[in-house]
Amino acid sequence: VRVIAPPTGANLGPGFDVLGVAYLILENSRDTLSGDVITARKTDKFRGVKLIDVINNPGLPIDSQNVAQAAGQYILDASGEFLGVELILDKRMPIGSGLGSSASSSVDSAVAVNALLENPFPRNHKKMLEAVVHGEAIATKGLGHADNVFPALFGGFVFIEDLNNYHYRRFLGGERMYFVVASPNLRSDTGEMRRALQSAPYDIPGLVKLTSDFLKRYLEGDLMDTDLIDLSKFVKNGGKIENVIDYLKGALSLIIGIRNQSATVLGNAMMTDKIVTPVRARYIIGYDNVKDAALSAGATGFIISGSGPAVVSSAYSQRDAEIIGDAKRRAFERNGVESKIYVAKVDNVGARLI
Ligand code: HSE
């Protein structure tokens, strides 16, 4: 079997670790980008899942430290079936781009190995979710987060309601929502970008939990009163409570924008994060210039895609997205950085067998 899983954009600003979207890069986009592709086949030569080759390998390990092998092995172990599976990874996505390259490999592998099982798991089975998060954890050498892998698996926008229990909600993207991604020729390491956040004067893990609880309650029809929460405990020396309030309101607006298919509400909401984005923006050469250029060209919003360095804007139409993309490319160029421009809509399908 052969599987392709789409590129993704995590966070969308004030949705750090709780929100992500799958990108459908349009065929007539200035530059094109495909998700990674994995070919999996049964073998009698051994038991277990083994990555035997990486096509276009940018220097990835071909062993258990490879995301693809780890996620595939997880699903096989969970099934209890005795099987040998060889994997070939076609590494089409650039690594360290902020476009969910490791997520694409992780999801490809879990879906491909699952498809070879005698009794495959349904795609939304907890074991599938665990497998793809496990793959991501190998990539970041951390605990794993789901805001790239779940959108790559299911498509659409995905809100991670409770990662400990693998609860999520999915929203479809609509006709009127466009994104334009500028992916500079720079590379960033997600693990490093996560560690960089330790310098932010906020309790970020606490804030992730608060944001998901806040959004979950809203989606259940109940709005938590922020006046009744002691927000000071999320703020360290030098941080501001107002930024936490803006962050929560912004996260709420992200959901409202997504549910109403409004590129304006979503775009404005994306830019309300003053907690995670300022720390990471420092690592992206020309960030402020590219943001100014995108907004002047009509972008409804601008934010870092995942942990960067790609930056993404929302737009009303494909034409707007193209103009904004051009402005972003030129702004990066003025900073001496080449970039690729991807015009996208929301991929509502997720990983596909091809
Ligand atoms: N939410 C994760 C982060 C996504 O921003 O670190 C990484 O791609």
Can you lay out the helices and strands and say which pair or pack?
Layout: E1 2-4, E2 8-10, E3 19-25, E4 37-42, E5 48-55, H1 67-79, E6 84-90, H2 101-116, H3 126-140, H4 149-154, E7 157-162, E8 167-171, E9 178-184, H5 190-196, H6 204-219, H7 241-259, H8 263-270, H9 277-281, H10 287-296, E10 301-304, E11 311-315, H11 318-334, E12 339-346, E13 352-353
Helix pairs in contact: 1-2, 1-3, 2-3, 6-7, 7-8, 10-11
Bound molecules: L-homoserine.
Termini Cα gap: 8 Å
The profile of the biggest β sheet is:
8 strands, antiparallel
Elements, N to C (H/E): EEEEEHEHHHEEEHHHHHHEEHEE
Number of strands: 13
Q: Which whole number gives the mean pLDDT? A: 96
Q: Which tags fit this structure?
A:
alpha+beta; 5-stranded mixed sheet; 37% helix; binds L-homoserine
Could you characterize what this model shows?
This protein has 354 residues and is of the alpha+beta class. Helices cover 37% and strands 20% of the residues. It has eleven helices and 13 strands. Strands 2, 3, 7, 8, 9, 10, 11 and 12 form an eight-stranded antiparallel sheet that branches. A hairpin with a 6-residue loop joins strand 10 and strand 11. Helix 2 packs antiparallel against helix 3, helix 6 packs across helix 7 and helix 10 packs antiparallel against helix 11. The chain starts with a strand and ends with a strand. It binds L-homoserine. The site of L-homoserine (HSE) has 12 residues, from helix 5.
Structure in a nutshell:
With 354 residues, this protein is α+β, with helices and mostly antiparallel strands. 37% of the residues lie in helices and 20% in strands.
